Hints:
There is one protein chain. The protein is of the alpha/beta class. It has 2 domains: 2-194, Alpha-Beta Barrel (TIM Barrel); 197-225, no CATH class. The chain has helices spanning 7-16, 61-71, 86-97, 103-110, 150-156, 173-183, 208-222, and strands at 20-23, 46-47, 54-55, 74-78, 121-124, 132-134, 139-141, 161-167, 189-193. Strand 6 (132-134) and strand 7 (139-141) form a beta hairpin. Helix 3 packs across helix 4. The protein is globular, with a radius of gyration of 18 Å.
Amino acid sequence: MEGYFDPEVIKAAKEMNFSLIRWGGNFMSTYHWEDGVGPQDKRPTLLDRAWGGMEYNDFGTDEFMSLCRLVGAQPMICMNLGSGTKEEARKWVEYVNGAPATPEGARRAANGHRDPYPPTVWNWGTSSGETTRWDGRRPRAMPPVTWNSTVVRKQALPGATLVSCGPGADFTPAWTEALIKQAGKDMSYLSIHYVVRLNQTVAKPPDADAQAAIAVAIPVGMTNL
């Protein structure tokens, strides 16, 4: 699997000394992990409904785990709360961390990875998937908890590190409060996704230095909310 990655990228990532790499984003709200495992030439090419491009599924779960191993970082995977199901989530956890004797662990072994992967952080929702759900045509609003998070905590991987994803607390305090009340006992952490659009900055369009300053300023600004 090492040959899949650009060695210069791997070298640079190692030098950055990442402790955690998150595999996710808006596209996860319509991503089905089973499309991205097994022989690459057998994987389907599909429309990426989040961004309108094509998803070739040549980079899937096993490739992501190999990347984390090469870089020396713990893996973090976003689950599909848009078009996904409880059973799909349970099977994904089993594929990643289940023993070879389990159905999905055996599937992983058949794909060339007998041993369970290292402890994985499971991200409950994405940067848009926490507030939208795909209805087959477009995203639509959804409540803070669409299906019980204990599918990971109790059924699939007891003791799993579970990070719930929420929008900026200053924008939707009622939504965040409801999330904590409904799923707080199952959550390890709450990740607040605070999005700053570049068209809202003073410098239009912002240059590279301005964009870097924005990225640095966000966590500082969040502490003052």
